[in-house]
Design a protein that fits this description.
Radius of gyration: 15 Å
Helix content: 40-55%
Largest sheet: 3 strands, mixed
Strand order of the largest sheet: 1-5-4
Number of helices: 2
Distance between the termini: 48 Å
Structural class: alpha+beta
Amino acid sequence: MHTQFIKHHIDKHRVDNFVKYVRRYLKRCNIRLEFRQGATVRTADGACAEGFFLEPDGSDYGLIVIAKGRPEREWLTTLGHELGHVNQWLTED
């Protein structure tokens, strides 16, 4: 039981550090990261999604929004997916 508590604490610490790193990285790209409580979020055009990326436009910041009302492994996967879109935007791919 005690080892499960320690493993969970270490994993939570690693996830928290990863999210902090992502926020710092995105800030340099003029992109904000937002988490929402539901299982899905609405995109700018009203579609239902687990997350989305809006690129910066001129002086307006960009945005990644992630629905955090799902298991951690799922919203982390969505965050990784949206970071892939950021990379495509940065490399103009």
